Description:
Blueprint: H1 2-20, H2 40-45, E1 50-60, E2 63-76, E3 81-90, E4 93-104, E5 109-116, E6 123-129, E7 135-144, E8 149-161, E9 164-172, E10 178-188
Antiparallel strand pairs: 1-2, 1-10, 2-3, 3-4, 4-5, 5-6, 6-7, 7-8, 8-9, 9-10
Amino acid sequence: MASVQRICGIVTAALLLPLAGSAQDGNNKPTSAQGDAPGPVHKQMDVLAGSWDVDVKYVIAGQAHHGKAKCETRWVLEGRFLQQEYKSKFMGKPFEVLQILGYDNHKKRTIEIMMDSLGTGVLHNEGSISKDGAVISNEGESLDPATGKNSKLHTVTTILDKDHYTLDWFKPGADGKEEKVVSMTHTRRKQ
C-alpha cells in the first residue's frame, strides 16, 4: 500500500512540476522558468527567418547532381525554434523537408532536427554557434541508405549576409576524412 501511495506521489509531482514554470506572481502576471525564454543566440539566428530560393548541389554514389528548392522559415513556439520547410523535386517527384533549428539555453547547444517525405526517420544533431552568430555547426548520425548503417554527419550553416547563407553537409569519405555531400546556397526571395 505504501508503495502505491509513493508511486501516486511521484506521478502527481511529475504532472505538477511543469506547471511551476508557468505560475503567476503576486500581480497575477504569468512568470516563466528562468532560462526558458528566447535569448541573445535566438536573436542572432533571426536572420534565417524568411523566404528563400535554394540552389542545391549534392553527391550520390560519387555522382554530382544539381537542383533547386524553395524554403520558408518562420519562428514557432514564441520565438524558440525556427521551422524551415523546404519544397523541391527529387527524381521527378515532389520532395519536402521539415527542419527545426534552435538553441537550448540550458545545454548551451544548438539543435537541428530534420524529417523528410522520403523516409520515416528523424535526424537529430547538436552543436554550437560562433560568438558572432555567423556559423552554426552541428554533429550527429544519419542512416546511409546504400549501406543501411549509421554514419557521422556534420552540418555547417554559414550566414554570409542578411540575404545569403549556406548549409553544407559533410560525411566521412572512404578514407575516413570529411567530404562535402550536400551544399545548399540560400538567397532571400524578394517580395
